[in-house]
Predict the structure.
Amino acid sequence: MRLRLGCAFSCLLLASSTMAGTLDPLLGKWQCQGGVNGREASVLMLWEPALGGKFVRLMWRNDLRNEDGTQRFEGDAYYLASDDSSLVGTWFDSQGSRHNIQATMEAKILTSVWSNEATTGRTRYTLTDIGMEIEDAIRSGEEWRVFGRVSCERM
């Protein structure tokens, strides 16, 4: 009985690791500072295994400051690894938006292209020796217009 439970547990851990493995370098809690649409941004970001290790969840909490105070923007994404570097996912946010995600992880850069009926955007998460740099852009015709940049430290 113990042997079976041990094997079952080991197999479960192996399956969890395989599904989330591509995003393992991003896992953890991050504190970020920068700017979004000309406003000062303070971001709390958490990457964690979810739903039995079948997905990786990104929780994004962005406090945007201006002269009128602070406005919070929140979003959650669920990523599913589809092979060694290609991922699919879905993003939901506090503006009521839902975006499909197609992403690739190459070297130390996760590039997520998100889209719905109205918008196509791109977020690049670049791991550095001291943390992570994130750049958000929106597609306008054939061009990408950057609207946000934050620098992050692991907490």
Remarks:
- The chain has one domain: 2-154.
- The first helix runs from residue 2 to 20.
